[in-house]
Model the fold of this input.
Amino acid sequence: QVQPVESGGGSVQAGGSLTLSCTTAGFDGSLFTMGWFRQAPGKEREGVAGIAVNDYTEYAASVRGRFKISKDNAKAILTLQMNNLKPEDTAMYYCALARGWLPLLDEDRYHIWGQGIQVTVSS
Done:
């Protein structure tokens, strides 16, 4: 089964930037909603950013203005640009996909998940 694969995670100091990528080959970006989710130790997974089939985007309040989600359908890549990172952004980040239209930050509506990648922000 085709599975999205995340890359670009790592460790950075507070105030720094990271760009996460997710290969989405096999999933038509014009048909699939895509999103980024994260889970910190001891916390529930939460929606970070989502992008609809028409490129409409939505962000969690905690990252709005700092993170940007985008996709390149031709290259089959989903990207999350993360700026001004904070220690509270430390988490495992997952990309997820679902066919059709759905609430962008509702993880229960996504059924295709990557394995996740760690992002650590030190103070």
About this structure: Residues 15 and 85 are 5 Å apart (CA to CA). The mean pLDDT is 95.
